[in-house]
């Protein structure tokens, strides 16, 4: 029974990974693609690793899967943020339909404080 649940969680993780990869390619700009990929791939990969943990709970493989889940949950959002910030600094601006551009607001506030 637990093997079936583990395989279902792994299959669900594969679906999330697939959706994240498709979203990365299909979204209209870098920032939307990064958001899609970071959220879906984090959830998908963590689901796959959690399924591996359920398959091998007392094995070193299961312990490594838990450690990897923690590592991915911390590093993927941080990496996506770094890529978005680098894209903005490089000159790839937010879509014209965007309501808020917080990076631009931070730059404006930083330039105002330097002139004072």
Structure description:
The protein has 116 residues and is mainly α. The chain has one domain (2-115). Helices cover 83% and strands 0% of the residues. It has four helices and no strands. The chain has helices at residues 2-26, 30-55, 60-90, 102-115. The longest helix has 31 residues, at 60-90.
Which segments are poorly predicted (pLDDT under 50) over 5 or more consecutive residues? none
Sum up the overall morphology in one term: elongated
Q: In angstroms, what is the radius of gyration? A: 19 Å
Bin the helical content. over 70%
Strand content: under 5%
Can you count the helices?
Answer: 4
Summarize model confidence as the mean pLDDT.
Answer: 84
What is the number of independent domains?
1
Largest sheet: none
Structural class comes to: mainly alpha
Order of helices and strands: HHHH
Give the gist of this structure.
The protein has 116 residues and is mostly helical. The chain has helices at 2-26, 30-55, 60-90, 102-115. Helix 1 (2-26) runs antiparallel to helix 2 (30-55) and helix 2 (30-55) packs antiparallel against helix 3 (60-90).
Please give a handful of descriptors for the protein shown:
single chain, 116 residues, mainly alpha, 83% helix, 0% strand, elongated
Secondary structure layout:
Elements lengths: L1 H25 L3 H26 L4 H31 L11 H14 L1
Helix pairs in contact: 1-2, 2-3
